[in-house]
Amino acid sequence: MLIIDNNSNDGTFSYIKNYLNLERISYINTNKNLGGAGGFQYGIKIALEKKYDYLWLMDDDSIPLKDSLLKLIDFAEKNPNYGFLCSRVIWKDGSLCKMNIPRTGLTTLLNTSDVDNKVPVLMGTFVSFFVSKKSY
């Protein structure tokens, strides 16, 4: 796991420092805020160089559920013919985050009850964007 800290000042390092002694976790601070796109580009470049199997991009204010990554990997391994995966995005109160509803090409909108439904989408946002190395 590669964690890119885009020079945050919110205590991120203090929060994750106890996990950094694990071999499978790498932490890099950019030492300068590169902006959202710059931080993503920086992390993607390093992940490509290190030949990671998957990229899971998310904004700094995303709070994934504990099993989110496992569900994405499980789906990816069982369904290898995908371009990218994205998550259903909800607010803390459980309501659907409408600005992050993926475009589906369907004539109906996805709802909060669609938690376990998997539907093809045309685009996703960087709140939770998951891609396999076979796709890049």
From TrEMBL:
Molecular functions per Gene Ontology: glycosyltransferase activity
This protein's record includes keyword Glycosyltransferase: yes
Any one Pfam family match given in the protein's UniProt record, by short name: Glycos_transf_2
Residue span(s) of domain Glycosyltransferase 2-like: 2-127
InterPro entries with a match to the protein in the record: Glyco_trans_2-like, Nucleotide-diphossugar_trans
Pathway: Cell wall biogenesis; cell wall polysaccharide biosynthesis
Keywords assigned: Glycosyltransferase, Transferase
Domain of life per record: Bacteria
SUPFAM superfamilies noted in UniProt: Nucleotide-diphospho-sugar transferases (SSF53448)
Record-stated family: Belongs to the glycosyltransferase 2 family.
Protein name: Glycosyltransferase 2-like domain-containing protein
Organism of derivation: Limosilactobacillus reuteri
